[in-house]
UniProtKB/TrEMBL annotation:
<dbReference type="InterPro" id="IPR026385">
    <property type="entry name" value="LegC-like"/>
</dbReference>
<comment type="similarity">
    <text>Belongs to the DegT/DnrJ/EryC1 family.</text>
</comment>
<dbReference type="Pfam" id="PF01041">
    <property type="entry name" value="DegT_DnrJ_EryC1"/>
</dbReference>
<feature type="modified residue" description="N6-(pyridoxal phosphate)lysine">
    <location>
        <position position="216"/>
    </location>
</feature>
<keyword id="KW-0663">Pyridoxal phosphate</keyword>
<comment type="pathway">
    <text>Bacterial outer membrane biogenesis; LPS O-antigen biosynthesis.</text>
</comment>
<dbReference type="GO" id="GO:0102933">
    <property type="term" value="F:GDP-4-dehydro-6-deoxy-D-mannose-4-aminotransferase activity"/>
</dbReference>
<keyword id="KW-0808">Transferase</keyword>
<dbReference type="InterPro" id="IPR000653">
    <property type="entry name" value="DegT/StrS_aminotransferase"/>
</dbReference>
<dbReference type="GO" id="GO:0000271">
    <property type="term" value="P:polysaccharide biosynthetic process"/>
</dbReference>
<feature type="active site" description="Proton acceptor">
    <location>
        <position position="216"/>
    </location>
</feature>
<protein>
    <recommendedName>
        <fullName>GDP-perosamine synthase</fullName>
        <ecNumber>2.6.1.102</ecNumber>
    </recommendedName>
</protein>
<dbReference type="InterPro" id="IPR015422">
    <property type="entry name" value="PyrdxlP-dep_Trfase_small"/>
</dbReference>
<dbReference type="InterPro" id="IPR015424">
    <property type="entry name" value="PyrdxlP-dep_Trfase"/>
</dbReference>
<dbReference type="GO" id="GO:0030170">
    <property type="term" value="F:pyridoxal phosphate binding"/>
</dbReference>
<keyword id="KW-0032">Aminotransferase</keyword>
<dbReference type="InterPro" id="IPR015421">
    <property type="entry name" value="PyrdxlP-dep_Trfase_major"/>
</dbReference>
Amino acid sequence: MLSEQIVSVLRSVITDKNDVVPLHEPIFQGNELAYVKECLDTTFVSSVGKFVDRFEKDLVEFTGAGYAVAVTNGTAALQIALKLAGVQAQDEVLVPSLTFIATANAVSYLGAFPHLIDSEENTLGISATSLKEHLNFIGEIRSGQCFNKKTGNRISAIVPMHTFGHPVDIDGLFAVAKDYHLVVVEDAAESLGSYYHGKHTGTFGLLGTLSFNGNKTITTGGGGAILTNDRNLATLAKHITTTAKLPHAWEYTHDMIGYNFRLPNINAALGCAQLEMLPQFLTAKRALYESYKNAFSVVKNAKLQSEPKGCKSNYWLQTLILDSSVMNERDSILKTTNDCGLMTRPAWTLLHKLKPYQSCFRAELPVAESLEKRLINIPSSANIIDG
């Protein structure tokens, strides 16, 4: 059976002999304890402290972005990024149907509507070809803005998501975005350490966002960041995510409606230590990919997802894609692997199948519909093989 063959292949690669091998767990082998202890010793555990500034500076240095603003989670980062990009209530924002619900939630928090787009198998992200065909059919340009001819709503932005760490087709999507006057805000929640033609994901659009949830390549426990090359946007992002409080020695004065989204110093301390370890994590995850690639070469009806040509993936979650001929065996594979202590999971349920987003305007989604039934994430932690 295919499920038993996959278990055998996984066991041949994974040297972790624990009863349960998680899908992706954090690793704390550096200065995490020392930096967190410093926060406790100095009592700077909240939104003020040296580690917040240091973490932002380190993110800028690593990603090459002009500015980074650390916030409480990736969803908050995307919500604020979309707000700063000019998304307004009643706008439509183009997002992939094949994504985690947070991508759509960030749009909805602004009173805007997710407009669902198909994916491509090569990158697992939004298909530029399908997007162009769709907009050619339903979009029209009026006064330099794109509108949906079917709903009458403005389509103001597009959110490419770098699925499981694999960079999307940036050139193709940006060409379409330019033709239709769309602002690009990248959801790079899963792709810290991934590069498109030598440039870090999340730094192409007007703004980009990262996530440092506990299951990401590095973690701050919970956290996220906004990336941008626009100084004014970075200043505004920091201001409104800190309740829009005006600087003063003792007075509490606020000049706009803000958000309490700033990342606490104690979480940033954890992030600083994790960033120090990031190159090591990325090396280990690439080695895991190579081991899986060799091992799965004997499996005829499943392939391991590889980084797109010209790109460098962080391989956040290693992913199997089943042949269409065996996609009905997906659930059996998931049950067998998890019963054996090897944690695997399917792709997310497509957004248009979720209750909050069933009525969203959407393109035809044949590739996303197929991938949903064929994707399986397999154990991907950076410490499950020797070396």
